[in-house]
Amino acid sequence: MQELKPLNGFTIGVTAARRAEELGTLLQRRGAAVQHAPALRIVPLADDSELMDVTKQLIDHAPDIVVATTAIGFRGWVEAADGWGLGEALLQRLSGVELLARGPKVRGAIRAAGLTEEWSPASESMAEVLDRLLDEGVGGRRIALQLHGEPLPGFCEALRAGGAEVVTVPVYRWLPPEDIGPVDRLIDLTIARGLDAVTFTSAPAAASLLERAEQRGVRGELLDALRHDVLPACVGPVTALPLEACDVPTSQPERFRLGPLVQLLCLELPSRIRPLPLAGRRIEIRGHAVVVDGELRAVPPAGMALLRALARRPGWVVPRAELLRALPGAGRDEHAVETAMARLRTALGSPKLIQTVVKRGYRLALDPAADTKYSN
């Protein structure tokens, strides 16, 4: 028997633009099927006049503190400055200020540039960076913040309220993807409950997905799916802000990294399964597959639609007409139910799991001892 992996049967959407392949590989190793639809693309600003002006400003008028938020952004800033002939002057200026790094990756980029960070939070959280700055006092201090695509919600405001002068450094920007097709397919799959979870690794990606749904007139349907059936998994609290602003509850790992995000899904998705004791067997509906006594079995889409309809009322008779409505694109021919049911029984490997009730419909063969538990 093939070993059951924690995400076998589940289909997970990946909205990341950066490190999407890494995240997809981690999910697939644990058995998931992955739908990748980058909700954004990253555009470097090496030729952007705004970044050049800010860089010159900081070289001429030194900040007291520089906060580096991402490795790709910090490297991009230094490389852009090199291209303008300002690289050496920028590094010299940064070597004389208090340099804070949000996490280990940006810390590595700082050291690769020949600089040394003053401090980095263990949590990799910008909230902890903000707390440190406010605790130390920011009144009258000049703070440069390397942005990671968009202004950090509340971060600059809190510093300015504390009396700081804040200079933002826009190293790269997020734009919609050139090919919007995969995003539209991801939205449609989410609305149709064809996904079990959608992962978000940046706030701009979450905002972009919601904006695209708004443009298509399906924002309400998308939010309904994310609130009730499809798990939105965010790498951290800043990433979750656009969703939670729409009253979408999200799940987040304690450590804001890809590995813990995948582990979170490995725990949360299987925990949503309600095992069904049928005809002496143990059945689990895992996303878009079925596990029978610990063995993963592939079930065709039509069969899954029938099984889900039956599982909503275990042990109760579900009429053929209702099952027909559950079948995708079946029309009005009740014979389609019989055909799909025969294939479902074959896929499950045991015809006794589903009982035919003559002239009425079908029901799951719920074990008698389970009747009370599942009839509530």
Largest sheet: 4 strands, parallel
Helix content: 40-55%
Cα-to-Cα separation, first versus last residue: 35 Å
| Beta-strand share of residues | 15-25%
Structural class: alpha/beta
What is the CATH class of the largest domain?
Alpha Beta
How are the SSEs placed, and which strands pair?
Elements: E1 11-14, H1 20-29, E2 33-36, E3 41-44, H2 49-60, E4 65-68, H3 71-83, H4 87-94, E5 98-101, H5 104-112, H6 126-136, E6 142-146, H7 155-161, E7 165-169, E8 172-175, H8 181-191, E9 197-200, H9 203-216, H10 219-228, E10 231-234, H11 237-244, H12 258-271, E11 276-278, E12 281-286, E13 289-292, E14 295-297, H13 301-311, E15 318-319, H14 320-326, H15 335-348, E16 354-357, E17 361-364, H16 371-375
Parallel strand pairs: 1-2, 1-9, 4-5, 4-6, 6-7, 9-10
Antiparallel strand pairs: 3-8, 11-12, 12-13, 13-14, 15-17, 16-17
Helix pairs in contact: 3-4, 3-5, 8-10, 9-10, 9-11, 13-14, 13-15
Structural notes for this entry:
This protein is α/β, with parallel strands linked by helices and about 375 residues long. The protein has three domains: about 10-40 and about 175-270, Rossmann fold; about 45-175, Rossmann fold, CATH 3.40.50.10090; about 275-375, Winged helix-like DNA-binding domain superfamily/Winged helix DNA-binding domain (Arc Repressor Mutant, subunit A, Orthogonal Bundle). Helix content is about 45%, strand content about 20%. It contains 16 helices and 17 strands. It has helices at about 20-30, 50-60, 70-85, 85-95, 105-110, 125-135, 155-160, 180-190, 205-215, 220-230, 235-245, 260-270, 300-310, 320-325, 335-350, 370-375, and strands at about 10-15, 35, 40-45, 65-70, 100, 140-145, 165-170, 170-175, 195-200, 230-235, 275-280, 280-285, 290, 295, 320, 355, 360-365. Strands 2-1-9-10 form a four-stranded parallel sheet, with helices on both faces. Strands 5-4-6-7 form a four-stranded parallel sheet, with helices on both faces. A four-stranded antiparallel sheet has the order 11-12-13-14, with helices on one face. Helix 7 (about 155-160) links the parallel strand 6 and strand 7. The radius of gyration is 26 Å and the shape is elongated.
